[in-house]
Amino acid sequence: MTAQQQSQPADDAETESLTLVQAVQDGLETEMARDDDVLVMGEDVGENGGVFRATDGLYEQFGEDRVIDTPLAESGIVGTAVGMAAYGMRPVAEMQFLGFIYPAFDQIVSHAARLRTRSRGRFECPLVVRAPYGGGIRAPEHHSESSEAFFAHQPGLKVVVPSTPYDTKGLLTSAIRSQDPVMFLEPKLIYRAFREDVPTESYEIPLGEAAVRREGSDISVFTWGAMTRPTIEAAEELEDEIDVEVVDLRTLSPLDEETIVESFKKTGRAAVVHEAPKTGGLAGEITATLQEEALLYQEAPVERITGFDTPFPLYALEDYYLPEAERIVDGIRNAVEF
């Protein structure tokens, strides 16, 4: 599958209709059945099936030695998982919310991301850290962060954000099979927003490949996760006046620079949509990449359509904070009318 193709199962594949969170569970179950070294650990992932039921049924199927309920101690969860990975296992550690991950930050950036380099290749760290992220579900403080840029900045980590059920299972499979640590960030706003046909068999979607969700010729809009759907909605709303190309990055580290640059060379204009704050967000990195690799194709400043440089607000302002189709439409028009 090339980066330019829409993600979809083969015509003859046996499929089932799944939500995104069900695709997470299916991906975990499939890999655990295939490889005895794969295990799941985290708070309430066992008998309870996880806070969003992403591990539902795994405890009954694989037992307490491979579906491990841990204390409420994020640093301990990831630190233990790093040791397991160095020993040769393939742990999948769940953080209940991305906003709870900060106590484990030292283990991720100081140990997981550096293990291969520190040991001069003697040890690898085939570890996946799963975390629901993003806003839009009316949650309390610390439950709605989009801090993906923290992890994309760290060499040695891969950062993956799916936006569809089909991609979720395929990307999670690739993450689990990776020999390097992967941050697998799941947009919880769309956990149960829609269904999609997902193959029952195992399959991989390569990490580091973007997907062009909608082809266009006037402007390239780069996005990921839950922002993919409102971006496509905005593109469809504008279809009679602006031909919008929508590129779902899927992997934030490593970025698919080839697809990003080639899309921009075709359109000459760009916007980036993400729900994280603007300052220090990945929109800046994407903009810099376009400047370095395709400056002479540029027709207008790159528009950044993002969250605001404030802590994520509570209920009353949550919808205002998140980029939605109307704000994305305005940003696209700004870039095209420059």
UniProtKB/TrEMBL annotation:
Pfam families from the UniProt entry: Transket_pyr, Transketolase_C
Domain of life: Archaea
Keyword DNA repair annotated: no
GO MF term (any one): oxidoreductase activity
GO biological process: one example: sulfur compound biosynthetic process
Residues in Transketolase-like pyrimidine-binding domain copies: 18-193
Cleaved signal peptide residues: none
Keywords: Oxidoreductase, Thiamine pyrophosphate
Entry keyword annotation includes Transferase: no
Cofactor: thiamine diphosphate
PANTHER family: PYRUVATE DEHYDROGENASE E1 COMPONENT BETA SUBUNIT, PYRUVATE DEHYDROGENASE E1 COMPONENT SUBUNIT BETA
Descriptive protein name: Transketolase
Organism: Halovivax asiaticus JCM 14624
Lineage of source species: Archaea, Methanobacteriati, Methanobacteriota, Stenosarchaea group, Halobacteria
